Amino acid sequence: MLSAGDMGHAVGRVARDRGCRVLTCLAGRSAQTRALAVEAGIEDGGDLASVVGAADILLSILPPAEAPGLARAVAACPVAATDRLFVDCNAVAPATALAIGDIVRDAGFSFVDGGIVGRPPLAPPATRLYVSGPEAGRLAFLEDDRLTVRDLGPEPGRASALKMCYAALTKGSWTLFAALSTAAHRLGVAEALDREFSESQGAVRERQRAMLPRLPLDAGRWIGEMEEIAATLDAAGLPDGFHRAAADMFRLLDGTPFAAESRQDWDRDRTPEQTVAAVSDVIDDLKSDP
């Protein structure tokens, strides 16, 4: 399991509960990641080469900007890759997934493209792991009431394409709501806009307001995901500006003090208005910075 962060440790726990021995490399990882690994029963297998050498299946689950680098590091490990499977489960464009596949296949690994939709699989209802590639069936052992495996066929890139299209809507709409809420705050019409939303877009308003205070926690890792979505849309002949702007919005959210919080310790009493005010302060700071 590379690595055992918020999502990785939960998937690792599912694998362990399905009878697998689960290893990870904790060298250089944070105290929080180390604690999550212990909580999930994931063993520290030593350095990366030791983990790769001991594993039959390698699951790459980490921020998308780090995915190609991990693939190169795994490929460079001095171990026999025969019968070892590398599964890229990251939020990357199909083209990025295919490039990762080329890297690990050149080193002798088999490759499966993956994409995770949903929250860390700690309890039902099941998170979805979409997979594609000739050996995607090897992931069926992960099927569980917390994690369901959906095979999209033998063509790598399809799982990443689905993940990109899905996240384009979810995370894209979150950043759109954050942006327009910040604009309304700065233009002095926040209360009037919120009243209009409550009267005409009640369900949408409730969902978006519930999510807004959480966005700074993951904003840093989602910048790269928005850039991967933009590349996906561009490759499909569609405008990519929507999600390049979403990446910029996540940069603003990542600049707030709230970005230092984690999913475990974030302030659940924080209001959307407080989040928006912090984003507005970041904008003012950027404007005043020579």
Keywords:
N-(1-d-carboxylethyl)-l-norvaline Dehydrogenase, domain 2; 7 strands; alpha/beta; 11 helices; Rossmann fold; 5-stranded mixed sheet; 290 residues
Summarize the structure.
The protein has eleven helices and seven strands.
General description of the model:
With 290 residues, the chain is of the alpha/beta class. The chain folds into two domains: 6-154, Rossmann fold (3-Layer(aba) Sandwich); 161-288, N-(1-d-carboxylethyl)-l-norvaline Dehydrogenase, domain 2. The protein is 53% helix and 11% strand. The chain contains eleven helices and seven strands. The chain has helices at 6-17, 31-40, 48-54, 67-75, 94-106, 158-187, 190-200, 202-211, 215-235, 241-254, 272-288, and strands at 23-24, 43-44, 57-60, 85-88, 110-117, 127-132, 147-151. The strands form two sheets. A five-stranded mixed sheet has the order 3-4-5-6-7, with helices on both faces. A two-stranded parallel sheet has the order 1-2. It is globular and about 65 Å long. The protein starts with 5 loop residues before the first helix and ends with a helix.
